[in-house]
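Something for you to look into today, if you have time. I want to see for myself how the chain folds. Leave the record below and I will have a look.
***
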Amino acid sequence: MKIITYEEKYRDDLIFMILEAKNALGRVPGLNEDLLDIKATYFDIGGTFLLAIDENDRVIGSIGYKPIKNTSEVWVHRLYVKYNLKHKGIGTELLNTVENYLKEKGKTAIRVHLGSGEEWFESKAFYPKNGFVEYEPRYMIKKW
């Protein structure tokens, strides 16, 4: 596996991977509008979007972040791992890659919104294991 910066040629594979992951969680697979134009939604506003790619050049994970205006913090979005490859460290590696990059850039914290409902049970377990704390219902932060 390798982690790369998003390239447009992976768009459809990324969208399919996320829809498949949502379906495996029992969620109604819907398309997130930000995925239709990652350049404008992430890169053009100072954020980034990374992909985990397997040996067959297929998307097996993703993570994006957007800066929070007038702060040294960011929001993390679209941290997904291909449903049949979970619990193999891919999500943690994606998150660690983003964190290390953000620390180098002088950012001081990452925030995440967990969504609502029981379908977010994996996120509720994943983020605390990676140093995040809840600061209000369904919202977590990690500071350094």
In short: The mean pLDDT is 93. The chain is about 30% helix and 30% strand. The longest helix spans residues 90-104. Strands lie at 2-5, 48-53, 59-67, 73-81, 109-113, 133-136, 139-143.
